[in-house]
């Protein structure tokens, strides 16, 4: 049996999986991403964990199709390096592909995590039948993977789809990137919790902000949530006008809120997308959650993307 190792490196944890060539997830594990040790040592730990999975499944190095890595951007896939991800500071400039080459004599492919998750939705999720779609993740931050004309659109260095820093409201406050009113600064889970906490004068989680808003008991929270839905609508309309997708897939923790978000954003799209077919673009929830990152990472070496 042939299989690929999929690795999804995140700011808090790294998910590792073995995925068979038919797409079946054979085994998974995860490690805390330890930012206090050298990234080389962290790569050693990841390789050790992956090798344990291989041994469990009685796979030999010759059975390995390759190693796919999804990592937060900014990165540089041309150089095989992590660039400057805010939540992975210890890894800035780290040559992650070369570090894995010390462990494997196999093909190693690096893409940004949202791009890998988009490929997972194409392979095994909500976008199986689409040749043109955008996967948007609304979580701690906001990012996207773009699939167009039957291929991933990665850009020259793997950073295409970094829509979190697309300005949707220049009056929306200072984003750490230096611009004002970036999509992620005003519509991510982090932004909702931050705004809600300021408004209520105490720490409020994103989930609680939604619960208060949707219970109809808190008009201020309701306004905040409706504003966020409108910003997400603005972001989606720009993606529709730019890429003309057949559908938009929404994933990430905030999408768990479900129908209220999907209904409000679809409503905005129906009113504001420029072309008549764009106004009917379906907005669908991601089908893969936990394993999307590693399935997509494995798919990077299993498919021609
Ligand atoms: P990560 O950003 O690490 O990939 P997630 O995709 O789980 O993690 O996104 C985390 C964000 O989603 C947090 O801001 C969290 O508050 C928010 N979130 C998680 N679950 C829910 C939920 N059920 N409803 C609303 N927001 C949620
Ligand atoms: Zn920004």
From TrEMBL:
<keyword id="KW-0418">Kinase</keyword>
<dbReference type="InterPro" id="IPR049874">
    <property type="entry name" value="ROK_cs"/>
</dbReference>
<dbReference type="InterPro" id="IPR000600">
    <property type="entry name" value="ROK"/>
</dbReference>
<dbReference type="InterPro" id="IPR043129">
    <property type="entry name" value="ATPase_NBD"/>
</dbReference>
<dbReference type="GO" id="GO:0016301">
    <property type="term" value="F:kinase activity"/>
</dbReference>
<dbReference type="Pfam" id="PF00480">
    <property type="entry name" value="ROK"/>
</dbReference>
<comment type="similarity">
    <text>Belongs to the ROK (NagC/XylR) family.</text>
</comment>
<keyword id="KW-0808">Transferase</keyword>
<protein>
    <submittedName>
        <fullName>Glucokinase</fullName>
    </submittedName>
</protein>
């Amino acid at each position: 049996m042939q299989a690929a190792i999929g690795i999804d490196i995140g700011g808090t944890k790294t998910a590792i999986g073995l995925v068979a060539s038919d797409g079946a997830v054979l085994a998974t594990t995860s490690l805390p991403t330890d930012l206090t040790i050298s990234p080389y040592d962290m790569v050693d730990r990841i390789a050790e964990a992956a090798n344990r999975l291989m041994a469990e499944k009685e796979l030999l190095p010759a059975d390995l199709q390759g190693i796919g890595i999804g990592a937060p951007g900014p990165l540089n896939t041309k150089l095989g390096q992590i660039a400057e991800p805010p939540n992975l500071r210890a890894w800035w400039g780290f040559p992650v592909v070369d570090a894995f080459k010390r462990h494997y004599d196999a093909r190693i492919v690096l893409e940004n995590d949202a791009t890998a998750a988009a490929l997972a939705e194409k392979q095994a999720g909500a976008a199986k039948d689409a040749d043109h779609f955008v996967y948007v993740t609304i979580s701690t931050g906001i990012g996207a993977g773009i699939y167009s004309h039957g291929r991933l659109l990665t850009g020259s260095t793997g950073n295409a789809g970094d829509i979190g820093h697309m300005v949707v409201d220049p009056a929306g406050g200072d984003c750490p990137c230096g611009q004002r009113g970036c999509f992620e600064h005003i519509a991510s889970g982090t932004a909702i919790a931050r705004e809600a906490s300021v408004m209520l004068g105490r720490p409020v989680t994103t989930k609680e902000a939604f619960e208060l808003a949707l219970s109809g008991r808190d008009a201020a929270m309701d306004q905040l949530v409706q504003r966020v839905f409108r910003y997400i609508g603005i972001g989606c309309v720009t993606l529709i006008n730019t890429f003309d997708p057949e559908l938009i897939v929404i994933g990430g923790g905030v999408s768990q809120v479900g129908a209220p978000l999907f209904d409000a954003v679809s409503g905005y799209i129906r009113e504001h997308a420029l072309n008549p077919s764009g106004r009917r673009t379906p907005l669908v929830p991601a089908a893969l959650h936990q394993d999307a990152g590693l399935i997509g990472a494995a798919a990077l070496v299993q498919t021609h993307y």
